Amino acid sequence: MWKFLRQVSVETQKHQKALNQKLKHLSTAALSERKLPSHSFEEGAEVEGFLVKNVTPIPEFQMTAIKLQHIKTLAEYFHLNRDDSNNVFAVAFRTPPPDSTGMTHILEHLSLCGSDKYPVRDPFMKMLTRSMATFMNAMTGPDYTFYPFSSQNHSDYFNLMSIYLDAVFKPQLKQLDFMQEGWRLEHEDVNDKTTPIIFKGVVFNEMKGCISDNSYIFGEALMNNILPTNCYKYVSGGDPIEILNLKYDNLVNYHKKHYHPTNSKFFSYGNFNLEDHLSFINSNYLSKTKPYEHQRSSTIVVPEKTWDKQCQLHVDGRHDPLASENQSHIAISHKCANMQNFEEVFVLNILGELLLKGPNAPFYKNLIETGLGLSFSPVTGYESSIQDTLFTIGLQGVNSKKFDEIIATVNKTLDEVIADGFEDKQVESVLHSLELSLKHQSSNFGLNLLFWLVPFMNHDCDVISLLHINDRLNWFKKHIKENPKYLQQKVDEYLRSNPHRLVITMSPEKTFDEKLEQIEKNILKERISKMNEQELDKVYGNGIELRKEQEKPPNADVLPTLKISDVDDKIKRVVTTDKNIIQVPTQLSVQPTNGVTYFRAVVDTSELSPELKPLVPLFNYVINQMRTTNYDFREMDQLIHMSTGGISFNSHLGESCTTPNAYEEALLVSTHSLEQNNEKMFEVLSELFNNVQLTDINRFTTLVNTLSSELINGISGSGHRYAMSIASSLVDPVSKQKEIYGGLSFVSKIKNIAQSSELEDILRDIQTIGQHVLNKNRMRCALNISAESTAPDHLESFLKSVSGEFKSQPGQTTHIFNVSGIQKVSHVLPFPVNFTAKSVRGVPFLHKDYVALKVLTKFLTTKYLLREVREKNGAYGAGAVVSPSGVIQFYSYRDPYALETLATFDQSSQFLSDTKLSSQDLDEAKLGVFQEVDAPTPPGSKGMGKFLYGKTDDMVEQYRLNVKQVTEEDIRRVADTYLSADASEQLSSYVVIGPKTSNLGDDWTIVDHDQ
Hints:
Radius of gyration: 28 Å
Number of helices: 38
Oligomer: single chain
């Protein structure tokens, strides 16, 4: 759950770019589903114990912002009233970490392990199948912790609010839960006193997993050292070694101080009645609490004092056997404006886009194209989610001998920008992206807003002013018009002449893992050596006590739950029209798209040769980044971003809903634009399809090196997905193709291409792919548009311009897959923890057993796997899912015990046989399935199930009905049919990604990437 890295939360970073570029024991059933118009709240009014401080329309987002303060506790409340059914709620606390023991992170976990009103072990996890939430999580940032959820169901929303608020204000904070979630000493086999004592714990293992990622290590070191005198010098998620120093009593005391209502901030968004929110919070929690003003002021983060000269630092990182020889990192980071200075923050965000993004950016030209670095590192860019904002230029895939040259190049580039400025078209392109992002609607719009705003709320910023983006945009345009050198002056002020600059470098140390492992062993040895017999007995006794607690039947009856009857039988049908435009099949759907046109095209690739197909993802990556007949690649990039929200090419493998082993092989082309730019959007597409020149070997080499670097550096953060992909590829043909297109096979292929001397031959193959697919011979299109849109006319012009004549759509074809038996593969990589997976062949979407398998995997995840793999053995995550093609997939994430987990997967069928399944258990598992099915879909994506996979509304409604009708007998039958030992022997697979695993049998294939 620790999402907010010191490099900036991935979520925050993503959504920030999208915006510049989410009654006592009150009966929720009694709450009316009123939707209170914003004008019912007036400034100065008192509503349910809150004082209305501000009511402001935000026309940019078609919403009204309402700011309130609780009169008694001074807790602040921020509501965004918008006609959106996907309602969001969060409670947040300012939680500067006092050290690197992971106190705030472990407290976040512990608070969700039971409360006064809900004394249930891990109510958070149990609500995953008692709710229709569209999002549930808890997140720890560098100086804040917040607890967000979203739901479209009114009763569900207030059920979750009750659980979340009781969790943060009245948690049980049991010591046994601290041992489970944080860290503990325990025998390797908890029931065997003769086995070695080791360290265990969910967060302990989670953070060990984090340090398997060099980007994480580098980002932490940067943050800790550029702001070294306040809380940012600490690892808020916890340094694994320091976690072992965290005391339970210290955590409890920290909660008393920091989780006080006076130190809280509330956020809500959507169309549910605000007065109901206020009434619930006030009557159940705030009205009973005494105010404590010191509580808020004592958590204030003091701004970092500006240095008078630059500092330099070198740190060690992990050696990566998959990466090239050049594995060093370098970053030049600057402390910039305080986050409360919104104008400066806005300008620095613009500068981040201008200086770093795309082939026209000066740092891209001088650092990436010159080969000084393979790619920008994840720390690169402008970071405004902490009080002292940072601007960082970072590179990965660097030769350590080039450090000085890189520093000189950065300074020279800044000097050039200060002297020459930016082209007007570059600035216009960035501003166009901002304008388009304001109109683009995502399914989690309220959550995106929350992720963006929480850091600013945390530091008492005027977030209402922050939301007035048009005001800031007009202010910016005025400034650059009045002062053409305004941006150059800001580059000089914040980057070139700024004395608060940190130059940090990192190089691989081959013994990095061994050193950390030895430190942990030394700590363990020292602690055990100081224990007397009584203390050693206590370690054993604590382990037994925790295991008994973990194995107690959960008393989940006190938790609120929706009923299956609360789930609609029918769906909101999507009206689509099918027509031929220049003979090309086209799906049209009129939607409230807010003035944005969404276009997609599927182009068949099934006729490509087996030699070319593995290169399709590389073709997709480079196609929109190369030159054309009329534009060089820099001009083309500018043209794309001046006219569209970007043009993406992706591999599309559309699984058959009915036929095993059948799927469609294609490219999916996607883009969107403002309606007034429809003509330009299709002109740009025409330029790509008709005139792209795949001949520039230097440009191609740069792109391949960048892609290779990014893929390799992303493995540790998605290890379970790679393990699942490999395992599924061994039992299912479409999964095999997906693994070739995006799994570890693809990473290895791109790595080999990047290191190859035959890049010109590869580029010729890419040209051949282009000749096969950049036409309308086997194409179909889709438009999601407003009623008045002229997009169909412009689509017709585009199709007329594209070569070829429509012939046919081969669609989904059946593939021969003659594989049987059990396959086991271990991929050895230098990670301190494992990622495991097991796959078993299932059935396609419309098969009668598919829904039963979906319900079964939900049941196994919540009732079995999370308990056995996460709670008992300390893995960060575990579960079971059914893929779209019907593969039954088990997985674990950041797992210290690979073989034990695989054995747990194997025992799933036996667990079900030994377990009495109640009607409530069955309903909860079904709710978990409906949670996926009923996830909100934005207007621009409606109808895509039909367009991409042939899933009609009739099919989806039948699927819903089938889910509701699943019985206990169905669950037991499919478990016996597909998960029994006999079934696994027919066709199944096991995969481990991680360190060398001892005791593997001769039936395992070992792929050692360090050889």
